[in-house]
Amino acid sequence: MQKNLSLANQLIATLPTQERGLFLANSELVELKLHEMVCLAGHVCEHVWFPVEGFVSIIFPVLGAAETAVAQVGSEGMFHISAAFDLKHSAFNCRVQAPGRAFRMTSATFQRHLLRGNCLRGALNRYMDARLCQLAQQTVCINHHSVEKRLARALLMARDRLCSKEIFLTHDVFAGMLGVRRESVTQAARSFQRRGLISYSRGYVMLTDVVALERIACVCYEADLHIYGRAFPEVELTNRGVSGG
């Protein structure tokens, strides 16, 4: 059965039918290509994106530091969030980590929709509140949870967003998501493989025991799901890809 892309992005899905139709009529469906840098920090960003497949990493650039993601965004949200505040420049880099498609709209058109539609503004307010809570949760996670627990969480998040137990990401990407050295990710991944939880080769991971990974993952995984579910109780989650990063 063909996927209904008009409801595939969970933010767009919250809009009433008429408002959603107008929103989509003023958008275009575009490809998000692997490793593409969609937004550049400090540069004018002329579009906003609402992914329906794959996900991007939101990266805050720090001079001299390795690339570290502060969040991921998939079909649960949108990026170039600064446009919601009528800010033209992006504060973040946005890199495609898993390719897919997204509805793209010019920032100017997006602003007009925000002025017209109370439902869109309300949905974005709830989304931004959830993201702030998830970022706070992540700060606690980094300081208190082991690399193994955080890697289990990251694997489950990737599974959720991709709707697949097959994940095409390298250890370098996971290191950037967790803010740790690649060697730390490799050590944790080897432990998971020895215990039969995953099978991996370069750039590929198969989750072979999701239940065990859910037991190992830090409590932040379920906490993030709860935060999003509280913000959007009306959205029926067809996947669980709502964690912050």
Protein model, in words:
This protein has 245 residues and is an alpha+beta fold. Helices cover 42% and strands 19% of the residues. The strands form 3 sheets. A 4-stranded antiparallel sheet has the order 2-6-4-5, covered by helices on one side. Strand 9 (198-201) and strand 10 (204-207) form a beta hairpin. Helix 5 (171-178) crosses helix 6. The longest helix has 27 residues, at 118-144. The chain starts with 16 loop residues before the first helix and ends in a 14-residue tail after the last helix.
Task: Give the topology, please.
Blueprint: H1 17-25, E1 28-32, E2 37-39, E3 47-51, E4 55-59, E5 69-73, E6 93-98, E7 100-106, H2 107-116, H3 118-144, H4 147-162, E8 166-167, H5 171-178, H6 182-194, E9 198-201, E10 204-207, H7 210-216, H8 220-231
Antiparallel strand pairs: 1-7, 2-6, 3-7, 4-5, 4-6, 8-10, 9-10
Helix pairs in contact: 3-8, 4-7, 5-6
Q: Major sheet, described briefly?
A: 4 strands, antiparallel
Could you report the average pLDDT, rounded to the nearest whole number?
90
Quick one: how many beta strands? 10
**Proportion of residues in extended strands:** 15-25%
CATH C-level of the largest domain: Mainly Beta
The helix content is 40-55%
**Which outline best applies?**
globular
Distance between the termini: 31 Å
Unreliable stretches:
237-245
> How many helices does DSSP assign?
8
Which strand order spans the largest sheet, edge to edge or round the barrel? Answer: 2-6-4-5
Q: What is the gyration radius calculated from CA atoms?
A: 18 Å
SSE order = HEEEEEEEHHHEHHEEHH
Tally of distinct domains? 2
What's the CATH H-level superfamily name of the largest domain? Jelly Rolls
Which class do the helix and strand fractions yield? alpha+beta
Proper CATH architecture of the largest domain: Sandwich
